[in-house]
Amino acid sequence: MRVAFIVGKFPILSETFILNQIIGLIDRGHQVDIYGIPPNNAKVHPDVETYHLLNHTYYRTEVPRNYLWRLLKGIKLILANFFQAPLVILRSLNFFQYGREAISLRLLYSVVRSLAAQPYDIIHCQFGTNGLEGMVLRELGAIKGKLITTFRGYDISCFVQEKGEDVYEPLFAKGDFFLANCEYFQRKAIKLGCDPRKIVVHGSGIDSSLFPFKVRQPRPDGKIRITTTGRLVEKKGIEYAIQAVAKVSKVHQNIEYKIIGDGILQPELQQLIDSLDIGDKVQLVGWKTQPEIVEIIDSSDIFIAPSITAKDGNQDAPVNTLKEAMIMGLPVIATRHGGIPELVKDGVSGFLVPERDTDAIAEKLSYLIEHPEIWAKMGKAGRAYVETHYDLHKLNDRLVEIYQQIMTHNLYSSTTELTPLVNMNYENI
């Protein structure tokens, strides 16, 4: 198959779930082209170079802020590409149909990168926002193929809150099929107007071979090591975990809390740590490579994922960092938020607490510290669930099956086969 991925910034380290799908398709013998935006950070995952992905990546032409320069550059683009695809160029300038996107020439700048592309079997748009772009590009004739869109988080939460609940109506009408990375977002998409027969759950997978399992047990020195991995942004709720650790440290002083990640809230979170006088116990260690993250988690005892619904409505699916901690055998504390309860079974693989509830996090953290005999059982339960439901290789095989069904138009009669991999009963673990 020939597959086009329409993405945002590519490649970026925080979206390995997209990279995993691309590599999975290539390993299965399929051709993948990527349409994205150049990232700000030059640091990339090693697989980007191993698979020579930048040779198959087409970046959107940069749109100058100065409108006069944008117009002059736009005229140059028209002259250079008009005879290759005159109808596409003219349609991209149709401001009656495309309004501001055409007037600002942003649509013209977007279409020129795909004009040399041959027809694709599948156009896979990662995030609903890119689905809207893919829909227009296909409508213009700039790209051809069956259009699939995956909803992953902000696109089905804060973007909808900002743009209105009808923002995806055209996409739901014109798109061929839809994926959601959890049942929670699948239900939201259906509520917004997606045909229930045209959307299935397809989660983000991880490669368990990269995350070694270890039975967690108390250390001879009595030290308790706690970890959180995530961007330092509002929806990760990290401030509530910091406050909880500060509270617990008054009783259990032999604890250490490492927060892996960076983001705009780094100064505020550091200020909070300083104001609570817990700098000797809580560290913002910055963003790390995957091997470095594995090393830190491997030496940890408990993992906290305190996600919250941000003020702008942004929400999380079952986050990969939480899956990684579970598959390595850590008991976890997470929130009843978004799709996370689909991943963590309360009292079995960890504990679920309400959003923004510092006291509840502190209570469960104290309980885990005082009852280390349950760590191993919780860790084994978490690993078994992640291996069964979020195995990267099984999910990439499933993705190919979905593509093939869409290409043969055998969509609705087979959706029962595209339910989650196994209806696993935690009680049997």
**Remind me, CATH topology of the largest domain?**
Rossmann fold
In this structure, how is the largest beta sheet organized?
A: 7 strands, parallel
Uncertain parts: 413-429
Order of helices and strands: EHEHEHHHHEHEHHEHEEHEHEHEHEEHHH
How far apart, in Å, are the first and last alpha carbons? 39 Å
Gist of the model:
With 429 residues, the chain is of the alpha/beta class. The protein has helices spanning 16-27, 46-50, 67-81, 86-92, 95-103, 106-111, 128-140, 158-163, 169-174, 183-192, 238-249, 266-275, 290-298, 320-327, 358-370, 375-389, 392-407, and strands at residues 2-9, 31-37, 57-59, 122-126, 146-151, 177-180, 199-201, 224-229, 255-260, 282-286, 302-305, 332-335, 350-353. Helix 1 links the parallel strand 1 (2-9) and strand 2.
Overview of the molecule:
The chain is elongated and about 75 Å long. The relative contact order is 0.11. It has two domains: 2-201, Glycogen Phosphorylase B (Rossmann fold), CATH 3.40.50; 208-388, Glycogen Phosphorylase B (Rossmann fold), CATH 3.40.50. Helix content is 40%, strand content 15%. The protein is α/β, with parallel strands linked by helices and 429 residues long. α1 (16-27) crosses α17 (392-407) and α11 (238-249) crosses α15 (358-370).
Features:
429 residues; alpha/beta; Rossmann fold; six-stranded parallel β-sheet; disordered C terminus
Topology, please?
Elements: E1 2-9, H1 16-27, E2 31-37, H2 46-50, E3 57-59, H3 67-81, H4 86-92, H5 95-103, H6 106-111, E4 122-126, H7 128-140, E5 146-151, H8 158-163, H9 169-174, E6 177-180, H10 183-192, E7 199-201, E8 224-229, H11 238-249, E9 255-260, H12 266-275, E10 282-286, H13 290-298, E11 302-305, H14 320-327, E12 332-335, E13 350-353, H15 358-370, H16 375-389, H17 392-407
Parallel strand pairs: 1-2, 1-4, 2-3, 4-5, 5-6, 6-7, 8-9, 8-11, 9-10, 11-12, 12-13
